[in-house]
Amino acid sequence: GDSVTQMEGPVTLSEEAFLTINCTYTATGYPSLFWYVQYPGEGLQLLLKATKADDKGSNKGFEATYRKETTSFHLEKGSVQVSDSAVYFCALLLFRGSARQLTFGSGTQLTVLP
Amino acid sequence: DVKVTQSSRYLVKRTGEKVFLECVQDMDHENMFWYRQDPGLGLRLIYFSYDVKMKEKGDIPEGYSVSREKKERFSLILESASTNQTSMYLCASSLYVAGQETQYFGPGTRLLVL
Fold first, then answer.
1. In B, which residues are within 8 Å of A93 by CB distance?
2. Pairing mode, strands A32-38 and A44-50
3. Cβ A89–B4 below 8 Å, yes or no?
């Protein structure tokens, strides 16, 4: 079945460090791909998305490129801040007939230290 | 901005009680979803709805039911709460336009069943 695999956390970085959170997927079709972020005590917020191969999603300094050949959608940021501490979820959206289903990875906890 | 609200942030119930979780969205979205979030498991889809009075089972519907009497409101019902339903419950809504869809999440309800 369809699935999303994220790098396991927790990830701890110093402020201004470079961030990569790996995400790979398995899907029978051509999914749209998303990164969501969850700050402590809050719901999920959409961070960025990409709907087709080679698309690059970007927001708030974060970027991810939809790589069909490696079935990956890795999240990157050049210089993290303490305020980026959160849980990050990779997700894919697939269409099955009239139904659409969002499948999430297990999440990666990021802690940024000052 | 899309706003998805959930009736409670925290809820404590006893085993066997009937529990109602309410979700309201203000963007006239057709689609609404209920997920539960558990550590290490990410988000799992319980039920979703593409229209008023319409519902479909997600990946883990057992022990739950839903109601969608109005477009803006989607209720999750635990007919007889059990301790293994202690979890964080997240509601989402989305609009499907021109082959693209993005889900927007509420803040979540943390349910404890004693």
1. 101, 103
2. antiparallel
3. no
Averaged pLDDT for residues B30-41:
90
Which tokens is A36 given? 């969501």
Contact call for residues A90 and A71 (beta carbons, < 8 A)? no
Chain A residues contacting B via beta carbons under 8 Å: 4, 32, 34, 36, 42-46, 49, 51, 89, 91, 93, 98-102, 104-107
Of A4, A43, A100, the CB nearest to B101: A100
Give CA angle at B29 (B75, B98), nearest 5°.
140
What's the alpha-carbon Rg for chain A, to the nearest Å? 14
Instruction: State whether A106 and B41 contact (CB < 8 Å).
Output: yes
- For the segment A27-50, what is each residue's pLDDT rounded down to a tens digit? 887 899 999 999 988 889 999 999
| 3-state SS assignment for residue B43 | strand
Q: What is the pLDDT of residues B39-88, one digit of tens each?
A: 888 889 999 998 898 898 888 999 999 999 999 999 999 999 999 999 99
